């Protein structure tokens, strides 16, 4: 079932290539795991970054983590398309985002991480 449409940022008009979840896991471990986990639940209020487990289909900024105002008010549900554009340049996609990550230029790397995140 597709995610619900939210009243915030419209879904980007992009094609997300098919990704390889195993390659995405490796990229996640290299690029993301220092701050993010993929565990669901738990106390995210004191974490350095929110868990990304179950992110696809979840409202942006909706867990217990202390999100920036930009993420709390973005008003969209994370989809493959939103993630694909966001992961290229997080600060540009969501103004006021505090994540200290420049982004991934490679379409393949972004598609692989998304394929991995869809399964966790």
Please tag this protein with its features.
mainly alpha; globular; 120 residues
Write structural notes for this entry.
The radius of gyration is 13 Å and the shape is globular. The mean pLDDT is 90. By secondary structure, it is mainly alpha-helical. It is built from 5 helices and no strands. α1 crosses α5.
Number of helices, where a helix is a run of at least 4 consecutive DSSP H or I residues: 5
Using only C-alpha atoms, the radius of gyration works out to 13 Å
Order of helices and strands: HHHHH
Beta strands, count: 0
* Average pLDDT metric: 90
**Unreliable segments of 5+ consecutive residues:** none
Beta-strand fraction estimate:
under 5%
Percent of residues in helices: 25-40%
Largest sheet, if any?
none
Structural class: mainly alpha
Name the overall outline.
globular
Q: What is the end-to-end distance?
A: 17 Å
Summarize the structure.
The chain has 120 residues and is an all-alpha fold.
Secondary-structure map:
Elements: H1 21-31, H2 69-72, H3 80-86, H4 90-93, H5 107-118
């Amino acid at each position: 079932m597709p995610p619900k449409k939210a009243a915030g940022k419209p879904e980007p008009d992009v094609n997300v290539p098919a990704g390889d979840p195993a390659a995405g896991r490796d990229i996640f471990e290299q690029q993301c795991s220092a701050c993010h986990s993929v565990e669901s639940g738990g106390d995210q209020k004191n974490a350095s970054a929110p868990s990304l487990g179950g992110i696809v289909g979840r409202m942006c900024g909706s867990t217990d983590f202390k999100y920036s105002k930009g993420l709390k008010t973005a008003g969209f549900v994370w989809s493959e398309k939103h993630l694909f554009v966001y992961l290229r340049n997080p600060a540009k996609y969501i103004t006021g985002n505090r994540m200290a990550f420049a982004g991934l230029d490679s379409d393949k790397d972004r598609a692989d991480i998304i394929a991995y995140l869809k399964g966790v």
